[in-house]
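Archive maintenance. Older records in this collection stored only the sequence; we are now back-filling the structure field for every entry so that each record is complete. The fields below show one back-filled record exactly as it appears after the update. Entries are processed alphabetically, and START domain-containing protein 10 is next in the queue.

ARCHIVE ENTRY
Title: START domain-containing protein 10
Organism field: Acipenser oxyrinchus oxyrinchus
Length field: 266
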Amino acid sequence: MPVQVPDDSDFNSFREQCENVDGWTVHYNKAGVTVWCRDQQQSETVQKLKMKIVCKDVTAETLYDVLHDTSYRKKWDSNMIDTYDIGRLTVNADVGYYSWRCPSPLKNRDFITLRSWLPLGGDYMIINYSVKHPKYPQKKDYVRAVSVQTGYLIKSNGVNSTLFYMTQVDPKGSLPKWVVNKVSQFVAPKAMKKIYKACLKYPEWKRKHNPHLKPWLYPEQNTLPSISPAELSLQHADSLENIDESGLSEERGHISEEEDSYSKES
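Back-filled structure field:
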């Protein structure tokens, strides 16, 4: 199948999945954060995870800026190893690279994704899925993971906002059950709270760092090279090496000092 930039029907489908709780089971609901897991369909090989957080004193516009601003992400996303944009497809779609640190002793993961965004009045959506780019093959020290579909829905409520995050990712590994449980019960809620805290600090940070540079709002500021969808292909999970990490024990895993202190603060 050819690579296609998401259209209105794709965004509408994503919004509907974020807002509809039918077929979803709550795994965590505490301190303004809810985490659901999708009741797995027979046709699905990878489970869907959905999260929601109410962000008081954070506007939808600020949330949207924070999720787009890769320069700022390097300040608050401690799990990220590297991220950069590769090229633009349209005024609201690009291709980029992201790698993140997995809990030890798992191998770190990375992605190449096609990302698209859509402002809708006071609400916003950002969605992505994995693609292959000939100049960015799989790296030796990383497991190339696959985003089947991942994205954010930001809903405005005046000076407050609500953030939905939904993801269906194939991490390309036979992961032990403790990892899956850790994601839904600890990692996912922590990540949502971390985004919220980053949003509270963003306006002050942005005033000191290229305050008028927002290419996601002003396409004329975008200096990325143009690329064609024909240069890309879909990243199929079955074409990547499957790493068996199912035998790794939780005792060998660790939570960083930052994560531990964060969970205590929360």
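Update note: The two ends are 44 Å apart (CA to CA). The chain has one domain: 8-265.
Entry marked complete.
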